[in-house]
Amino acid sequence: MSDPGEPSPTTTIIVMGVSGCGKSTVMRALADELGWATAEADDFHSAANVAKMRSGHPLTDDDRWPWLEALASWIGERERAGENALVTCSALRRPYRDLLRRGHASVWFAHLVIEPAAIADRLEHRRGHYMPAALLASQIETLEPLDPDEPGAAIPAHRPPLEIVADILARLAQNP
């Protein structure tokens, strides 16, 4: 893993949290504000992973490792190109976040936090996404909040996207 004190010439904000917490919406608002490169982690899943989730089965760690490796590779490509980036990724557990950070000093996590009932309501009304609301409980059970030594912050996500963006940018400025 990169030395935490090692400065990075780029920044990669990973907007993280359980499905339905608003990751994609917040990333789009950040992209509008910053003009940075973006990646939706959902686009990095294998067809087998998507089929598994669509059928209501949670992913295992063995399912997730190649997906996370592909996403980490994309982050590394942005760093080598000298580009700032925005990424959505559930990043539910510390080992997943450690993999995403390994060798990538630019990574900073914005953990979107919102009440499970509000997320469940969002998922029930969401259209066109393969992640069924039935998997929310398994994601909440798997979620490990950021540890104090991880770069990032817990961001209340029950507010309008522009307020969330302002909060993310203020917290990042305080703790790059």
Describe the structure.
The protein has 176 residues and is an alpha/beta fold. The chain has helices at 23-34, 47-54, 61-80, 94-101, 116-125, 136-142, 161-174; strands at residues 12-16, 37-40, 85-88, 107-113, 152-156. The protein contains seven helices and five strands; from the N terminus they run E-H-E-H-H-E-H-E-H-H-E-H. Helix content is 45%, strand content 14%. Helix 3 runs parallel beside helix 4 (94-101). The longest helix is centred in the middle third of the chain and has 20 residues, at 61-80. The chain has a five-stranded parallel sheet with strand order 2-3-1-4-5, with helices on both faces. The protein has one domain: Rossmann fold (3-Layer(aba) Sandwich).
